Each structure stands twice: as C-alpha cells, then as structure tokens.
Amino acid sequence: MSPSVKQYVADNIDKALESGWIKVYYQPVIRSLTEQLCGAESLARWIDPDQGFLPPDKFIGTLENTRQIHKLDMYIIEQVCKDISERLSNKLPTVPVSVNFSRLDFEEVDMVGFVEGLVSRYDIPRDYIHIEITESMIVSDADLMRRMIDDFRDAGYEVWMDDFGSGYSSLNLLKDYHFDTLKLDMEFLRNFNDKSKAIMTSTTTMAKDIDMATLAEGVETAEQVSFLRNIGCGKLQGYFYGKPMPIDEFFDHIEKQNIGIEERKWRHFYDVASINARETDEPLEILEDDGKEFKTLFMNEPYMRQIFSETSSSLETTDEMIYHTPSPLLKKYRNFADTLEKTRNQETFYYTINGNIYRFSAKVIAENEGRFLIKGTIHNISTDQSVRMLNSVDSRLKELNHLFDNITQINPSADSIMPLLGRSTYQYRFDANAMKLTDFFALMEKEVVSSADKKRFHEFTNVSTISERVKASEKGYLEDYFRIKQQNGQYMWSANIIMAIPGTGGKEFLLCARALPENVKDIMNETKEMFRFEDYGLESAEMGRYTKLFMNFAANSTVKFFWKDKDRNFVGASQAFLDFFKISSIDDLRGKPSEKQSWSVDKKRSIKEDTEILTKGAKVENAPSQYIIDGVIHNTICNKMPVYENGKIIGVMGYLVDIGEELSRMDSFYHIDRFDKITGRMTIRSFLNTMVDYSVQYTATGADYGLIILRNTNHDRIAVSYGQEVEHKVLKAAGDQIVEVTGNSCAVARNMNSDFILLTHVSELQELDMIAAQLKEKLEGIKSVDGYSVTIKIQTGTVLRSEEGIIDENILYTAISRLK
Fold first, then answer.
1. Residues 13, 68 contacting (CB under 8 angstroms)
2. Which of 18, 549, 580, 667 is the most buried (most CB within 10 A)?
C-alpha cells in the first residue's frame, strides 16, 4: 500500500466515520443441517469519494499502527446494533451477527461496558451479538484477553475463536480458554485435499468433545458443503452462499436464493442437533419428529451401510424410502418414537426387513413446541459375530436369572434404566421402562423402601458415585440389604447388587435383586427396627407397643405435629411437619426455638404462647398463625398443650393445620387456584388476602411493611421469540431466583405477565430499596434458561405502608406507578 493511502486513512478516519463512508457489510452464515440462514458476519467496507473502494487490507493495518482501530470497531458494533434494533422493531427476520475486534480495542476502551451500553440503548437481546477473537490477539496479550473473554461470556455473549489454524498455538489456546464456536480458517478449504480434510475432520470432532460449535469459512463449492455437512461442521460461511453485502441487499439475496431464515426460538434446538452430528465409525442418525412426519437431519455413512446397499442416496431420498412409505413398519416407528418422547430414556426397537434383524437404539436430545430431536444408532444383528455375541449375553442373563428375582440394566451417565429379566416385586406402582434412572431410584426411596433404610438406600443408589464405588470395591461389586414394601403392605428383606457390565467402559451396570431366605429375614427383623427413633427426636427404642404405634404415626400420618422441651427448643416432629417446612432432617430442627426459624411471621406471639403453656399449663386452641415458605404465605391454625411427667410440665406439644390445604379440597370443586401454576408462587388472589392480614397487623400493632413490584420489560419479546414453553421456563426461573434472594422473609406472588409482587416487614424505605436492587441484579443475571439465551431488563417499584399519603387502597397502585 502506498504511503499516500496509509496517510490518507490515518488522517481521514474520523471524517470517514462522520460522513458515512464506512459501511457495514454482512456475509451469510448457514446451518449445515437445515441449510437455513442462522447468522451473519459484519465486515467493514470503506467507500471513499476520493479514493474509491478501499478493501479492509488497505485500512485495517494502518488504523492498528496508529492506534485508531477502536474508532472503527466501535462504529461497526454500533451500526450492527442499530440494524438489529431496526429490524426487530419492524418485526423483520433477524439473525445473530458476529463482530470482529482488535486487541488494541481492549487497551483503549472498556469494550465490554461499551457493548453492554449499546445493547441497553438499542434494546436488543445479547444473543444477537457474537464476539470474534483471533488467536493472534491472545498470543500478543494473554492476560488481557483472558479477562475480556471471561467478561464477555459472563455478561451473556458468545465468544468465537476466529481463523483457527492460522497460527501456531491453537491447541494450547483451546486448552486454556473457553470459546463457544471455533471458526476454521479458510486456508483449509483453499487447499482442499485429503490432508486438509483429515485435519478438518479431526478438528471438528475435537471441538465437539470439548462442547464447542464449529463454523467453516471460505466455503465455495457444493463438494465442500457436502464434506463439511458429513463431518458434522455446524455452520458454513463463504461465497457459495453469498458475498458480503449491505443489509438490505443481504436479505434480498437470501430471499432470491430461496434460503429459509432460522427463527430465534429454534436456534437452541438446532444447536443441539449440530453439536451431536459428528464423524464416527458408529452408525449415527439425527432425526427431527414433528409428531406426524420424520425428517433426517444427519445420517453418516456407517448408518447408511447398515440399511442400504449403496450409500450415495441423498437424505431426501433416504426419508422417502424409510419414513414416507405405506409399510406397516412405519407405524411401529411412530409408536417407538412416541415412547421415546414420553420416557426421554434410551430405548431399543427390534424389527426385521428381508430376513435381517435390526436393533435401533435412540434417545430424545431436544424438544421444542411439539418437535423432537432423536439421536439414534442402528445395527444389523443378523451377522454371525453379532448372533454369537447375543447368544452369549442371553446365556449369561439366563444364568443370572437363576440367582436373582430381577435384573435391570442401568447407565448412570445416561440416566437410563432398562429391565432385562424378571419382574420386581416393588414395581407394582410404577414402570421402570418409562422412567429415568434417577427418578426410578427417587420413587423407590419415597414409596417402597422402609424409613429406617432410606438413608442407606439413598447412598447405595447415588448415580454420581456408582462407577467409582464399584471400582474401589474389593468384591468388584456393590451389595446392600433393604426392606421393600410389597403389594400387601408388608416389608420384605431384599439383597441388592450392582455390578459392572464388561466391555462398556464402566458406563453400564446390572442391578440385581433377590428376596432373602425366611430364616435370614427373621434374624434381621429381630435386630433392626422398622423406624430409626432418633429421626423423630427419641433416644431409646425400649418403649413398647405404644411407642411403635406413635412412631408409625409420626412417620406416616399427614398431621404436622411437634414437641419441644421446657426451654422451648424443638425436640422432635412428625415427617409431615418436616416436609411442610422443607426441613431435610430432624437434626436441622432439634435444639432450636421457633424464633430462630426464618419461616415464622409473628415470632413474638409464638414465644408468648409457649411461655403461657410452660409456666401456667395453658392450652392454645385454634390460634391463627402465618408462615412464609418459599415465598408463599401459609395461613394455619395452631393447637398446643403442655407435656407432663410426674405432674410437672416438661415441654410443649402441638400441631398445625394448613388452612390452604384444607380449603384446596373445596377449591377443587370451584376451580379456584391459590398458587400460580407456572412459578409455584402465590396468585394475585392469595396475595391480596395476605395484604389484608399485613394491613390488620399494621393497624393493630404498628408492624410496618413494604411492597416491591418487579417487571421484566423484555418479557413480551421473550414470549414472541421463543413461544409459551420457554416463556414459562423464564418465569419459573425468575420466581426461583426471587425466593433464593429473599428466603422466607417475603411473600411472593406473580401478577400479570412478568410482574412479581413482594410483601415484607421492614421499617425503612431504604431497606426496601436495597432488597429491590438485589433482586434486580439477580434477575438480570439470568443469561440463559435451558439453553435459550435471554436478556432480562428489570424495572422496580417500592412503597412503604407508613409513608405519608399511603393507605391500603393505594399502596399497590403507588408501587406500580413508581416502576423505573
């Protein structure tokens, strides 16, 4: 480049930006599995009235050498945000845009803060902006770039590594930094030979192994597209799909080429498909099911070899041959798919074609708005080797069947379970075929394992440690004994063994169970009680028949009762009481007075009642009380009485009745909802009733209280972009975060749309504002929900009941009017 052009660029960059000589061009990014537009890269073009068209290599280097590159990059990112905002506002199709940065940008400017400011000013979701970083930038200043990468990702932006393979330290960078997408340098395709193909295949597979998406630059031919699709490269960019263009021309080109545009709500769905499509020697298919028709998104060559004599068929032809035929087999496929979508487990389907026996194993990997992604593998098990293997396995299972009542195959890492032989004597209430492994164990623990054995059973079935415990076991397997409830209500001792299945790499195990002989059961029943007395606050098991009756009542009744010592400290409680207050163990309650628990609203009243009982032998009958549990106000009736020993009062015993639970039986007849079905928090109806209680306390005792309104101004956009299912997940996540911040100090309700309302006892407006600020920060910190990227913007409004001019009739309206 001539010195005059360099000088011109250095001297005129400010004027070029002010005059609009710098233009943003966009180049299409296509998802390989669907061939839809899923993004674009923004590129700078300088169209000068004097110099004419200046390509990037004529001005980028000069701007970096004169430390002015940040001016260009700040201009480009702002223009991108403007374009995205305009299209979103006009309800036009919009896709994410990646933006390039220079290392010098981060030295000259707080670029993370600048981008955050633009996203806020133009009101666009963060997932529409992707940050591109080159490996040369990292090599030149590793510490700075590590901070920038972490800051951008923590803020909710994807960070992509550009030009991977163009430098000398790429693999080390992947080890030390986390990127969301790897952009393969176009030089790989420029020299498109066997060596470059092998490198690209290995790189794509490696990226998926470390949870990184892939994009290939420089795609120019149909041959390259086919190759990249077959190795599982998720996104494609290059002149085959379009050159860089101004935004209006860009979308006109997409329309003329008849290229569909991926909607935001399907982005995560197809991201999951892309990350699972890969080069492998195992047969692999990624299938999309809309409930009516199947569509193959990916099928590798080993899969095709299992079912076709030739492997050159297109996916469209393949679908016509398999899924669009009048064959009775298609109905079986549909039934199998329905089972997959119901159980979400790994399932296996056997069928025959032309004398061959096929085993198709599959699992649902994503779901959205009634569409499912199914990942499957297939094997023709009619080969001699496979038959011998099956006969061997079948023989071994038959041998085990002589030793055990039932045998189940489990895979802790896949959270799957598959009954093989026998029928569990404890499966009369639930079917293991339709469950995840963790759900199966949890249901067993809850429904059929005796109370005294629950803790040991929980430890025995901890799926996260099964593999390690089996390896560490001297026997080579795990073994324990539990009492299992039978259909007749009786408990029987059962021996349970978990052993590894050889050849599965420690991933699959057999869970085997057998009933113990009668004499062994008698001995064990004599030495172990059905209930652990210490779980309910008792010290000795030598208490006779009435004690056992009481312990059965404490363990199994729905009555929420408790007892305290003479110092008002909890000594024990029924299981129903512990469950009501979400207390995992009696140890978390024992030795503590009521006022130390966060759930009590009126602690002074409880102290007064207990004192009257302990000092005067008084009784408390049907006394109203309130408790906050997970942000929900529970109105209860409490009855308490003294406990006597040798004529002296030694403690307090009482029980609670939850009015809401009792009324819910009546409400079910009138379809009245007290709890929001989406978030689990209070409905506005319940909340208004609670406000009346707070108002009565304020009038009677002067107990001040405040009200907080929270509103996500981006709620409607989330609902429109993603649909109702994701909208509800975001609301649920918001409700959970609110309770995480406030604990049991606030009553929480969801009003219309995204509005949450909170009530809490406070004495200063400043304290209320601090709680609101904490909640705002927490909610805006939600960057994604179930893989769907979200940008939440919270308005808050607060009001204190004791403020001048505030009355019961205007407190809610005042809080709403203060939203900001």
1. yes
2. 580
Question: What is the gyration radius of the CA atoms in the chain, in angstroms?
Answer: 33
Q: What CATH number is attached to the domain comprising 14?
A: 3.20.20.450
* Residue 429 and residue 449 in contact, taking contact as beta carbons nearer than 8 Å: no
Residues 639 and 654: beta-carbon distance below 8 Å: yes
Count of other CB atoms within 10 angstroms of residue 143: 8
* CA 741 to the chain's CA centroid: 19
Mean pLDDT of 478-487: 85
Query: pLDDT of 745-789, one tens digit each?
Result: 888 999 888 899 999 999 899 999 999 999 999 999 999 999 999
Residue-number span of the structural domain to which 294 is assigned:
285-380
Return the structure tokens found at 54. Answer: 């200046």
Residue indicated by tokens 């004419």: 52
Cα 685 to Cα 18: distance, rounded to the nearest angstrom: 56
- Among the candidates 351, 380, 409, a domain finishes at 380
Q: What's the CA gap between 373 and 344, in Å, rounded?
A: 11
Q: Give me the CATH number covering residue 307.
A: 3.30.450
Q: Is residue 789 part of a domain?
A: yes
User: Which is more confident, 670 or 731?
Assistant: 731
Indicate whether 401 belongs to any domain: no
Q: Decide: 32 and 225 in contact? Cβ < 8 Å.
A: yes
Between CA 510 and CA 443 the distance in angstroms is: 19
> How far is Cα 648 from Cα 247, in angstroms, rounded to an integer?
87
Q: How far apart are CA 449 and CA 455, in angstroms?
A: 10
pLDDT at 41: 97
Round to whole Å and give the CA distance between 759 and 800: 10
Q: How many CB atoms lie within 10 A of CB 332?
A: 13
Cβ neighbours for 733, distance < 8 A, ≥ 6 positions apart: 782, 785
In the chain, pLDDT over 70 holds for what percent of residues? 87
Q: Is residue 655 part of a domain?
A: yes
Tell me the pLDDT tens digit for each residue of 324-377.
777 777 888 888 898 888 888 888 777 777 667 778 889 999 999 999 999 999
Structure token pair of residue 381: 């098990």
Q: How many CB atoms lie within 10 A of CB 456?
A: 13
Q: Are the CB atoms for 678 and 671 separated by under 8 Å?
A: no
End-to-end CA distance of the chain, in Å? 53
SS3 per residue for 748-809: EEECCCCCEEEEECCCCHHHHHHHHHHHHHHHHCCCEECCEECCCCEEEEEEECCCCCCCCC
Assigned token pair, 776: 């705002």
For 140-173, the pLDDT digits (tens) are: 888 899 999 999 999 999 999 998 877 655 677 7
Global pTM? 0.71
Answer with the residue of higher pLDDT: 296 or 382.
Answer: 296
Q: Are residues 99 and 237 in the same domain?
A: yes
